[in-house]
Amino acid sequence: MEPDFDKIIDDLVSKYPKADEFYSNSLEDAVKRYEAICKEQDGECEDETSAKNDDEYSIVKNGDTYEIHKGEEPLKTPGGRIVKTLYLPIAEQLLTDLKEEGYYSYTSPDSLLSFHFTTMDYVAQMPKDVFINQLNSMNWEKSWTLQGCPTGNPQLMMPWMAYFGERNRRIEQIRQWLKNQTPMQLGATVCVYNAFMDFNVPFCWAFFVECVPEAEQESAIEDFFKFYYKFDNTFNSPYFFAIFKRFSLYYGVHFKEMGVHLPLNKKQD
């Protein structure tokens, strides 16, 4: 018997009331504020020699933003932009990843540098509709989680539908979800997509961040990992959880600031 998708969604909404808003959530009011600091081109990127002395990195407050400095000079992204953010928790995690993993950890999604540099150098440098069109040209609908549950076992089919959804409906949900995202959220989503080659994974993770109470998120992602691992054991749990930790921080920082599903207003002086 085919799973009842509507019942699965009703059960999720009953368990997590915020799930009812998840598919239509929009934070468009945040876009101008958060993309503005990504627009500046500030010179040459970090070179390999100067990136080696990790103990020299620091956070410097500059007006409303937090800059990452190396020695006396601002650190630059590969695109030549000063590494800066409006959020202290973001700056602190960038600093941690720089000190522990080094500048070139930006090539790996288990470093927040990957999320932040992707947002500053890529996502925020083009109109949103152009960027979304680029994403939609990637044939992401062919990802394996959108091809249906590979087993007829009912004990696996039910959680499969709860996580990955019915193909056509989930594709439309993902398309709408991408349109509603801020540049930072798109940066986080793209980094996770690049790791898993599947937008369904960051979509599920965004559900956890937006809808599942924070105290229950660790348990939710552990359950998701155990289920995902039954079908794809490419990723070990420390790597998987490290990526989710950074996704949760970077994607969810707007919600931390103002509350889930409340449009952001510009800061008042």
Instruction: Summarize the biggest pleated sheet.
Output: 4 strands, antiparallel
Count every beta strand, where a strand is a DSSP E run of 2 or more residues. Answer: 4
Which structural category do the helix and sheet elements fall into?
A: mainly alpha
Instruction: Give the tally of structural domains.
Output: 1
What radius of gyration results from the CA coordinates? 19 Å
The number of helical segments is 12
Query: Terminal Cα separation, in Å?
Result: 59 Å
Described by the principal axes of the CA atoms, the overall outline is globular
- Average pLDDT, all residues: 81
Low-confidence segments, given as residue ranges, are 26-35, 47-54, 259-269
Note the beta-strand portion.
5-15%
